[in-house]
Specification:
mainly alpha; Monooxygenase; 3 domains; 0% strand; membrane; PQ-loop_rpt; transport; transmembrane; transmembrane helix
Length: 244
């Protein structure tokens, strides 16, 4: 690899850092603990970003196919959208590595689509369209005009807001004695994604607010996944044939 093309070297240095590139491919030291942590963190980060392309698609398709958002708590969706927007805008403005927050872009779009569908089926199309336009304006303001300190404050407030949103959805499930139109696949993927993000955030950002955000997101997602298990419908026992 010492004679690798400049493009390949540039990509590897961008992902691993100059020091770890030298350790792995110049010194052939593949047991450097710090660089191994960097490598695992980067691989996890890009895997999460790849998975985020589809993570909420099952939820979107379930609402769309059934033409119903029954059981989906809109305030919970809204707090999720707020937390994703705050975290992604903050990380973007702070110039954190894309592997540390990139999934926020895709999760934000998918969460917005869920919010649009909930408003469409629970209210009407006009309100759904207005909400989408307002959200686009807010995002533009966040990434172009908002001071970093304000974004940090939003990121900090998103921690309790996000957890409260998860608890609101859990409460809705409890009241309904079921999970309604929630997608088990989406909630399970969100649980494992937020758990992996705890490690990558520690490794790549060291930002305590982001780390706590993902810790609470993991706890909230775990509660909802546990409700899927608790409220799942038992398989009916086969009927015994009567002996004539």
């Amino acid at each position: 690899m010492a004679n690798s093309t400049p493009l390949v070297k540039h990509l590897l240095v961008t992902v691993l850092s100059e020091k770890c590139y030298n350790e792995f491919f110049i010194n052939l030291n593949f047991l450097n603990v710090m660089c191994l942590k960097v490598l695992v963190s980067k691989m996890l980060g890009f895997a999460i970003i790849g998975g985020s392309l589809m993570v909420k698609v099952p939820q979107i398709m379930k609402i769309w196919a059934n033409e119903s958002a029954q059981g989906v708590n809109f305030l919970s969706v809204l707090t999720d959208l707020y937390a994703i927007s705050a975290a992604t805008s903050y990380s973007f403005v702070r110039s954190f590595p894309f592997s540390a927050y990139g999934e926020g872009l895709f999760l934000g779009v998918q969460t917005l689509m869920i919010a649009m569908l909930v408003l469409r089926y629970n209210v009407n199309n006009a309100i759904s369209t207005i909400f989408t336009c307002l959200y686009a304006v807010v995002i533009y303001i966040l990434v172009t005009m908002t001071p970093v300190q304000t974004l940090w404050s939003m990121q900090a407030t998103s921690v309790p807001v996000l957890f409260a949103g998860k608890l609101m959805q859990a409460r809705t499930n409890y009241i309904n004695s079921g999970t309604g139109q929630l997608s088990a696949a989406t909630c399970t993927m969100l649980l494992f994604g937020s758990l992996a993000r705890v490690f990558t955030s520690i490794q790549e950002t060291g930002d305590s607010i982001i780390i706590v955000t993902y810790l609470l997101a993991t706890l909230g997602n775990a509660i909802i996944v546990a409700q899927f298990i608790y409220y799942r419908k038992p398989t009916p026992a086969p009927k015994k044939k009567k002996v004539q």
